[in-house]
Amino acid sequence: MTSWRQPLPLLFVLPFIGLIMWLNIKMTRFCDSCGKMTVCQNILNPFKFCPKCGTEYDSKHKNEEG
Ligand SMILES: [Zn+2]
Q1: How much distance in Å is there from the Cα of 42 to the middle of ligand 1?
Q2: What's the domain count of the chain?
Q3: Cα 25 to middle of ligand 1, angstroms
Q4: How far is residue 45's CA from residue 57's CA, in Å, rounded to a whole number?
């Protein structure tokens, strides 16, 4: 009756897990100044500054690109 034993759901579950892990990595920031780890809750409006010391996260990239 049921088809839960088929491997087809894995084709959806594995990419989903990979996506979640990728988002966790993308939304986790480490402060260069104080080393505080910050996990952003809203991917559309990510943190730009460290909530602990106020250092801007992407300040290095701005210097490289001019
Ligand atoms: Zn900091």
Answers
A1: 19
A2: 1
A3: 18
A4: 14
